[in-house]
């Protein structure tokens, strides 16, 4: 960049050929014009964009669960949202096939939550009631840091329509049923779950290295997949 305090042609502003002129505090300044960068279409960039778009689509569909499951993680990191954490954690679980131009989500590794709360042990999922998905689990309330009234979240996601539904129970319930709207009928869905502590103040679990803060969640469990029964 060059500059001058006087110009016999007067102040020059705007682009002339490859040169851009502007006046800053009475000083004439010149800089070289940079051509706009074309939208790159290398195979690697195309794949990344496809994976990124699919991660965003998945995250938007599961926004409610993400806001619960990753809330504490976002608070600890500051200046970053739960949604951004979700994207960062999950873009690596999505692959892109250049031949078919399709993305594939590794659902058993999708992360909706994170934390030190002891998880429940999901034992299965059933689809034998119309528009209902029921996840069963063992509460594990004998584990230090686990409490009967901890919340258990079950999320049902239908990839084809890009929608999810969530239901909440407690560790003591042993199961959670997610009742779905008719748009889920005959859809293949993936079911995930996690647990949120019921503590209202920070609790240190001695001898286990756990610190539970209000809102602390467990890691995500993949419960299973199946087809929703129509009415």
Task: Please tag this protein with its features.
single chain, 231 residues, alpha+beta, Immunoglobulin-like, 4 helices
Q: Which helices and strands occur, and which strands form pairs?
A:
Elements: E1 2-4, E2 14-16, E3 19-24, E4 27-32, H1 43-61, H2 63-69, H3 71-77, H4 82-90, E5 94-97, E6 102-105, E7 121-129, E8 132-138, E9 151-158, E10 163-170, E11 175-179, E12 188-196, E13 203-205, E14 210-212, E15 221-227
Antiparallel strand pairs: 1-4, 2-3, 3-4, 5-6, 7-8, 8-11, 9-10, 9-12, 12-15, 13-14
Helix pairs in contact: 1-4
What this model shows, in words?
The protein has 231 residues and is of the alpha+beta class. It has two domains: 2-32, no CATH class; 43-227, Immunoglobulins (Immunoglobulin-like), CATH 2.60.40.10. Helices cover 18% and strands 37% of the residues. It is built from four helices and 15 strands. The chain has helices at 43-61, 63-69, 71-77, 82-90; strands spanning 2-4, 14-16, 19-24, 27-32, 94-97, 102-105, 121-129, 132-138, 151-158, 163-170, 175-179, 188-196, 203-205, 210-212, 221-227. The strands form five sheets. A four-stranded antiparallel beta sheet has the order 1-4-3-2, with no helix packed on it. The protein has a four-stranded antiparallel beta sheet with strand order 10-9-12-15, covered by helices on one side. α1 (43-61) crosses α4 (82-90). Residues 5-9 have low confidence and may be disordered.
